Amino acid sequence: MALTRSLACGDGRVPSVRAERMARAVFAALGGIVEIGAVRSTGTWLLPDVSVGAFLQPRQGDLRCLVEGVRAVGRFSDEVMAIADELGYFADNDVPAASLLLWSEGITGVPQPPERLEEPELVRLCRIGADLQLTRLLQALVTAALAAGTESGEGAAAVAEVLRVACGLVEPGRAGITSADIHRMWRVAHLPAILHPASDAPEWGKAGYRAYDAQLERLLWGEGPGAVRARV
Question: Above pLDDT 70, what percent of the chain?
Answer without folding.
Answer: 88
